[in-house]
Design a protein that fits this description.
The protein is mainly alpha-helical. The protein contains four helices and no strands.
């Protein structure tokens, strides 16, 4: 058995024991105020007595808009380094970026045709 394997195993096990110990210490040594009823009540945007239940269903439109935003916002991560290095990349980099933007535009058209962007 390699000494590196033994050393890494000892480090891994010791970190696991330290984490378990810290969690147990915070559970037993930390404050435990279960009698304070005001602290455990619901407070929502200045309203201490909310109306309705918390088990309501959200429309899938919220999730579609969020996923669409993430998909089209991530393109900035790829476009910024391209814009910085446009001179070094030349025409090949320009063609590749147009292909990338074309694919994103095709995705936008797909979302539009599926009516994911229309809000009823």
């Amino acid at each position: 058995m390699s000494t590196h394997l033994i050393l890494s195993s000892v480090i891994f096990v010791s970190i696991a024991f330290i984490l378990v110990g810290v969690f147990l210490l915070t559970k037993y040594l930390g404050p435990n105020n279960t009698q304070d009823k005001l602290k455990n009540t619901v407070y929502e945007s200045g309203v201490s007595n909310p109306v309705g239940t918390t088990n309501i269903r959200f429309s899938i439109k919220f999730y579609l808009v969020a996923i669409g935003f993430l998909l089209f916002d991530v393109e900035i991560i790829f476009m910024f380094p391209w814009a910085v290095n446009i001179v070094d990349l030349g025409y090949a980099g320009l063609v590749k970026m147009f292909i990338f933007i074309g694919l994103l535009f095709a995705g936008l058209i797909y979302m539009y045709k599926k009516k994911a962007l229309s809000w009823d």
